[in-house]
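Record type: monomer structure entry
Structure origin: computed from sequence
Chain ID: A
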Amino acid sequence: MSEPTYEELKAQLEALKKSGSKRSGALEFRVGEKGGVSVYGLGRFPVTLYYEQWIRLLDIAADLRAFLEENKSAGKLKLKES
């Protein structure tokens, strides 16, 4: 098998850039080596918590949502412009 030419490599790179990892806004979950569950896609870095921490957070989801709404109307939170 022969080595690819410069032009072939360049074409492959362009194809990868076009089909590559564009942020779709979808969230992705992964379990790490130490048992932490990470959520990718929320920001630049993943959010990682252990099982018990996720359960505690999910148990108070309604309280968290109410807190966010209360502080949004008070102008304390910076909202991302869509």
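Annotation 1: The CA atoms of residues 3 and 9 lie 10 Å apart.
Annotation 2: The chain is about 45% helix and 15% strand.
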